[in-house]
Write a structure and sequence with these properties.
This protein has five domains: 34-196, Galactose-binding domain-like (Jelly Rolls, Sandwich); 200-295, Immunoglobulins (Immunoglobulin-like, Sandwich); 319-553, Glycosidases (TIM Barrel, Alpha-Beta Barrel), CATH 3.20.20; 557-660, Immunoglobulin-like (Sandwich), CATH 2.60.40.10; 681-937, Beta-galactosidase, Chain A, domain 5, CATH 2.70.98. The chain is mostly beta strands. The relative contact order is 0.08. The radius of gyration is 32 Å and the shape is elongated. The protein has a nine-stranded antiparallel sheet with strand order 48-49-50-51-60-57-56-53-54, with no helix packed on it. Strands 3-2-5-11-8-9 form a six-stranded antiparallel sheet, with no helix packed on it. Helix 4 runs parallel beside helix 5. The model is unreliable at 5-22 and 954-958 (pLDDT under 50). It contains 13 helices and 60 strands. Strand 44 and strand 45 form a beta hairpin. The longest helix is centred in the N-terminal third of the chain and has 15 residues, at 3-17. Its EC number is 3.2.1.23. It is an enzyme of class 3 (hydrolase). Belongs to the glycosyl hydrolase 2 family.
Length: 958
């Protein structure tokens, strides 16, 4: 089923769950919104803020909203008490709301409730001057009042709401506001009226198991006579597949129904099949009330010491933590944002998401049900917890709101010490399905339900935990602040989890950089220093490099082939890492492509041939070989591109392999030899040696052997100088000599130390060849050579290699071989201006790279494999000293690059090497490293014609 079909079904379901009252029969719940349904459009209410910005007078405010984003009050980050010390005081303004509304006269005689989906924080409600009920305490929870006796039907009514940003209950502030996230004030989720007939059912809970057993529990209200409660079970085409009923006596308050459905389609993240239960309360032929609930048949088991099982199959969570967030509106979202986030998670090949650190909007959970994600639904509590008195009604509210979502597999009781263990039993009391309750924690020894969720263990401590008796499922790991963590170190960590019996998978921290548009600071996006930029995507969901690395590492169609073997037979080793899907349900497509040349104004490749191939029948967890069924001439093209699609026709991942080495890719690019060119001209002074050919000149400094001057074929100077410099090891210059050869002029610089050979050759075509060799011993962050070039002169770059995102030693996944192009930008990952991909960084497997500058262009190429190019000054992770350190110079040609650590890695002495084998430094044994580079200063001549730009078509997707 495609995502579009899922969304159509979801839409029909939501119409049944949330009908507009004008279209709803009197025997059903009817809804009238008093606010907007989300952050657009909203409804204006009268508003008075008691302190801070725009305070002391009545005006209007959009509802729902966080009032700071409407220009009222003051901002606080939850950890401001640490930043500003003992004299700090949280902003504690109050917001006074007024709104006039009319209740339909037809509602007279019905029960009417006012419902708040979320209000920060203490909320007092009055209707027509009368208090609706006790003040609600707790920001992220649905609450409601029966206001039937306070309404004037068919007339104007006045709603008054007082919202206190800080709670009068200390434990509510401790759990919700002394936290590592932005804290706000205001009615941030919708407000509406709901009306029922006098006799009705509510709090409908469903427990539907994988074996087809179905139990429904409902609270029945105000029954004046004997009635019958009937549940019809419908598939989403509307067909009734089962019915169960029970007699209900007058005065009863709770009833249960049960039946068994034969061979239901089971709900999993891979097969998110939903059903509906249509519940009818009737007396004789008369229907008193009818409602519909959506659910799925599935069974969750925690088998101690074995794993987490869904429908009898062990599953491992591939997830991240997700805050409810949007930069302009804070925690007030809309349906399109909810959908965008679910689609991002699915695009990363994730199957799970943890709600951090509070229950989300109902719409997000509906999408997880429909599109397929396992959910950890979390009670707020960031390192401090609710008291039992304050927390009990909040747990009840959370469970009663979310209990029928099949996507929710665990309840999280707080976060990192924010767990009141007395509340565990409250979850169990109200949840008909008795889901396991877990304790996300940052210290060992706090396991619950047989699951250890300890946070931020390194690779080697994870190995030890996984060999213990409990299931290990870290609810936070590989902290993704800046460009650290996330996809960096994940390849090793995920293989460890995937192959361990007791692993339950894990959840990366976190999805989104929580940057808020500061309405008090000219609408800058503020991430509160290093506190909030923890995401795999930016505030507006800009995709960072780790996003794509995760997509490859988490791919359920697992292919490890990095380069084609010399005797490639057209078959690729493939592993099925789905839990429930046979690969016969998926499909594959190959393309034979040629890459564009540097002279081509466009980037990318041109598909010459493509074909859809037969999918192998391969059960979950099995391995086999995929026969690409390539044509005989496949080696005549530059590369093979293999795309894999899931049963819903969504791209899972795309792999690209060269059909030959870099020398083949440089055919038509390099032209070092030419018979009809004049000999290279040589000019020499006491301190310099200059070579000129085809209007290109290069000058060497005789005192240090460095390239000291360049003039391009456009006649202008190019400031590419001061190299080669060895970035690691020793090199003492001992002399420079030159001699002519039949095909050019050779310049040899000699050194003592680790740099063994530096040999330049100027060809008559203007190409400058550099051959070098060095030998190093020890553990080093990087190896290779550097040159200098002013970064501010650079306009952009185009290259053939892995891209478009930069790489780290422990984050090579997620990039693809192609011709990429990127304009110079100053993006520091997870900070404004969030322009991705970053221009600066290490770029992998480069065949050629063209730099476009204000002085003209120059091209660098290598026929050797595994060349990394470092572009200018950058860092990956903020710390006392930005990490990792950089090589000397501005542009480097490297054979080894450094790994990157994580935020918490720096704070707790968890250096990158503790994240696994790929995160260790480069181990050098003294063996020689040799490489050839070619330089062309200007735009090289070419016989090939630029290829036209070809826009992708629908056929390119399937």
């Amino acid at each position: 089923m495609t995502i579009m079909k899922h969304l159509c079904i979801l839409f029909l379901t939501l119409l049944l769950v949330h009908p507009a009252h004008a279209q709803t029969p009197a025997t059903q719940r009817q809804i009238q919104y008093l606010s907007g349904r989300d952050n657009h459009p909203t409804v204006k209410w009268d508003f008075y803020c008691t302190s801070g910005r725009k305070s002391g007078f009545w005006t209007t405010i959009a509802v729902p909203s966080c009032w700071e984003q409407q220009g009222f009050g003051l901002y606080n980050y939850g950890r401001d008490y640490k930043t500003y010390g003992k004299n700090f005081r949280f902003a504690d303004e109050q917001g006074l709301y007024k709104h006039s509304f009319t209740v339909p006269a037809a509602w007279r005689g019905r029960r009417v409730e006012i419902v708040f989906e979320g209000s920060m924080t203490d909320t007092e409600v009055k209707v027509n001057g009368a208090v609706a009920g006790a003040i609600h305490q707790g920001a992220f929870y649905r609450f409601k009042y029966d206001i039937t006796d306070k309404l004037r039907f068919g007339e104007a009514n006045l709603l008054e709401v007082k919202v206190s940003k800080m709670s009068a209950e200390p434990s509510v502030n401790n759990a919700e506001r002394l936290a590592d996230y932005w804290v706000f004030g205001g009615i941030f989720r919708p407000v509406y009226l709901q009306s029922y007939p006098q006799q009705y059912a509510e709090n409908v809970a469903i427990d539907a198991r994988a074996n087809g057993s179905f139990t429904l529990r409902a609270n029945v209200r105000n029954l004046k006579q004997a009635t019958q409660l009937q549940a019809d079970i419908l598939d989403l085409t509307g067909h009734i597949i089962g019915t169960t009923s029970a007699a209900v006596a007058a005065g009863d308050t709770v009833t249960r129904l049960s039946t068994t459905i034969k061979n239901p389609r089971q709900w999993t993240s891979e097969t998110p099949t939903l059903y509906r239960a249509r519940l009818t309360l009737r007396t004789g032929p008369e229907t008193l009330y009818q409602t519909t609930e959506t659910f799925g048949f599935r069974t969750i088991e925690v088998r101690r010491g074995k794993g987490i099982y869904v429908n009898g199959t062990q599953v491992k969570m591939k997830g991240t933590n997700r805050h409810s967030w949007w930069p302009e509106t804070g925690r007030t979202l809309n349906d399109s944002i909810q959908l965008q986030d679910v689609k991002l998670l699915k695009e990363m090949n994730m199957n799970a998401v943890r709600m951090s650190h509070y229950p989300p909007d109902a719409e997000f959970l509906h999408l997880c049900d429909s599109l397929g994600l396992y959910v950890l639904d979390e009670l707020a509590g960031w390192q401090k917890f609710y008291s039992t008195r304050a927390g009990t009604p909040l747990v009840r509210s959370m469970v009663e709101k979310d209990q029928n979502h099949p996507s929710i597999i665990f309840w999280d009781n707080g976060n990192e010490g924010g767990t009141n263990k007395e509340l565990d039993a409250v979850f169990t009391q109200y949840d008909l399905t008795k889901r396991p309750v877990i304790h996300p924690h940052h210290r060992p020894g706090n396991a619950a339900s047989g699951i250890d969720c300890n946070h931020y263990e390194d690779y080697y401590s994870t190995q030890k935990i996984l060999s213990d008796s409990l299931i290990y499922m870290p609810t936070e790991f590989l902290h993704s602040q800046d460009d650290g963590g996330g996809g960096a170190g994940l390849a090793d960590m995920w293989e460890l989890h995937w192959k361990a019996q007791r692993s339950g998978g894990g959840f990366l921290w976190a999805l989104i950089d929580e940057g808020i548009v500061r309405t008090d600071e000219h609408n800058i996006i503020d991430v509160n220093g290093v506190n909030a930029p923890d995401g795999l995507v930016g505030p507006h969901r800009e995709k960072e490099g780790s996003f794509f690395a995760i997509r490859e590492i988490f791919s359920p169609i697992h292919i490890t082939l990095k380069e084609l073997p010399a005797k490639f037979d057209g078959k690729v080793e493939i592993e099925n890492r789905y839990h429930f899907t046979n690969l016969s349900q998926c499909f594959f497509q190959w393309e034979l492509v040629n890459f564009r040349k540097p002279s081509d104004p466009f980037a990318g490749s041109i598909t010459q041939k493509k074909s859809r191939i037969k999918s192998p029948t391969l059960a979950p967890l099995a391995t086999s070989k995929l026969n690409l069924e390539l044509p005989k001439d496949w080696r005549s093209y530059d590369a093979i591109v293999l795309s894999a699609f899931d049963p819903a026709k969504n791209l899972v991942y795309k792999w690209t392999w060269k059909t030959g080495g870099n020398a083949k890719l440089l055919d038509g690019v390099l032209a070092p030899a030419a018979k009809d060119k004049p000999a290279v001209q040589v000019a020499e002074t006491d301190s310099t040696l200059s070579l000129t050919a085809s209007n290109i000149s290069v000058t060497f400094n005789k005192t240090n052997g460095h390239l000291s001057g360049v003039k391009g074929n456009n006649g202008d100077k190019l400031s590419f100088t001061n190299g080669p410099v060895l970035v690691a090891g020793t090199a003492t210059f001992t002399g420079l000599k030159h001699h002519a050869e039949p095909d050019g002029e050779v310049v040899e610089a000699s050194y003592s130390g680790d740099l063994k050979t530096v040999r330049w050759k100027m060809h008559a075509t203007g190409w400058l060849q550099l051959d070098y060799e060095y030998s190093l011993t020890g553990d080093l962050p990087f190896t290779g050579l550097s040159f200098s070039y002013p970064e501010n002169f650079v306009i952009g770059a185009k290259w053939l290699g892995q891209g478009p995102y930069r790489a780290w030693k422990n984050r090579l996944a997620g990039t693809t071989l192609n011709v990429w192009e990127n304009a110079n930008n100053n993006t520091q990952t997870a900070a404004a201006p969030w322009i991705y991909p970053e221009f600066k960084g290490y770029f992998a497997d480069i065949a050629w790279m063209e730099f476009n500058t204000v002085e003209g262009a120059f091209l660098v190429a290598s026929p050797d494999k595994n060349l990394f190019v470092r572009r200018f000054n950058f860092y990956g992770l903020t710390g006392i000293k930005p990490q990792p350190g950089l090589p000397i110079g501005d542009i480097s040609f490297l054979d080894g690059i450094p790994p990157i650590g994580t935020k918490l890695g720096l704070n707790i002495d968890q250096h990158p090497e503790k994240l696994g084998p790929n995160s260790e430094p480069n181990h050098l044994t003294g063996a020689p490293t040799k490489r050839t580079l070619y330089f062309y200063f200007g735009l090289p001549p070419t016989d090939s014609k630029p290829q036209p730009y070809i826009a992708p078509t629908k056929d390119d997707l399937f």
